[in-house]
């Protein structure tokens, strides 16, 4: 094998309404809005970002199916699962499931599931173990 990938740099999130999507991710998940390139929008968090692409955007390569609401995303929060649940409720975000025990890339974690404005499944997980 000549190489192996190291990490994900960014994911492109196809959406119906860029402003609504960016507002939700900033308000609910604390991501930071960033404009790049020729006026494109991104959501920055940690050392990663979501590029926010309006569905049907010309001159922006995307997957074979340009379908808002077709992703399952998992984000890690460095707070307790109880704090994640409390924050989602405070933001009036319906919790579909959680807290539930799951296994992530680094081992056991506790997750809450919700949906973004386009219907993407958003998992917010914590690796912090309860006291």
UniProtKB/TrEMBL annotation:
Residues 7-127 form the VOC domain. It holds the Pfam family Glyoxalase. The keyword Transmembrane does not apply. InterPro entries: Glyas_Bleomycin-R_OHBP_Dase, Glyas_Fos-R_dOase_dom, GlyoxalaseI/FosfomycinResist, VOC_core. Keywords: Lyase. One of its GO terms (molecular function) is lyase activity. It comes from the Bacteria. This is Lactoylglutathione lyase-like lyase. It comes from Mycolicibacterium rhodesiae (strain NBB3) (Mycobacterium rhodesiae).
């Amino acid at each position: 094998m000549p190489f192996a990938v190291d990490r994900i740099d960014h994911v492109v999130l196809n959406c119906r309404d860029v402003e609504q999507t960016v507002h939700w991710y900033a308000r609910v998940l604390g991501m930071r809005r960033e404009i790049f390139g020729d006026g494109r929008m991104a959501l920055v968090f940690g050392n990663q970002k979501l590029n926010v692409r309006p569905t049907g955007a010309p001159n922006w390569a995307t997957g074979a199916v340009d379908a808002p609401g077709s992703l399952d995303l998992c984000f890690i929060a460095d707070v307790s699962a109880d704090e994640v649940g409390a924050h989602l409720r405070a933001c009036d975000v319906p919790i579909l499931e959680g807290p539930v025990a799951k296994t992530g890339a680094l081992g056991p974690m506790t997750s809450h599931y919700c949906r973004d404005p386009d219907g993407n499944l958003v998992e917010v997980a914590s690796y912090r173990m309860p006291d």
